[in-house]
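Folds vary. Our protein:
___
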Amino acid sequence: MSESVTRVLSIPHGGGPLPLLGEPSHDRMVEFLRGTQAAIGQPRAIVLISAHWECSKPTLTSGAAPGLIYDYGGFPPETYELTYPAPGAPDVADKVAQMLSEAGLDPVLDAERGFDHGVFVPLLLMYPEATIPVIQLSLLNSLDPAAHIEMGSAIASLVHDDVLILGSGFTFHNMNAFGPGHDASGADPDNEAFEEWLRSTCTNTGITESDRTSRLIGWADAPGARWCHPREEHLLPLHVCYGAGGGPATQAFDDMVLGKRASGYAW
């Protein structure tokens, strides 16, 4: 990734706080995330779209010092004492809200909400110094893929103001596939088929943007789609990133997380 072009990035964030616990099934993902700072440098601010916040309207954290939300359960006590004291960015939140409003999307500012683990877990790996101001942008609880692409398009010009638009999700998110009776290390044809489709859709320079958009809106018709995403909230941060990127992803990153193939994309 090049600092001069990468200001939109879609990443996997793994399972809860496991990336911070030395869990071997996250090693490749952790290595990738730790390498992003050297590759893309220091943005002025970060607007992060996490799979773990849904609202009826696009909602932005606007507090000056957001706390953390430990929205996971059953992990060691130290994972509920993690800190990520990055400042908020009320000025950036106001600017993003104006952009969304101009696009007719009726945004909401939330000065009380903190950062969920889709924010602080990857950022502890990417920017552990916690000095870059961060705001979080919610998903829409409609889960409408076209609306999320539109939301990304509305904020695309942030990249010209040295703001990193970061989508934090997971391109495979079938929790039943990680449960008892499933071999996490075994072959998963549906997982492979969906990842191949997604990579081609996001990176193929030989298709029109109209076709790419149509494919991403109709993602549920892709091979293996509903096996990989019984519910699509972990895929939709990528749709926001595509809307912001406005074209084919310039780079793709293949990963294995919890024994499943996953991917990240840069614009």
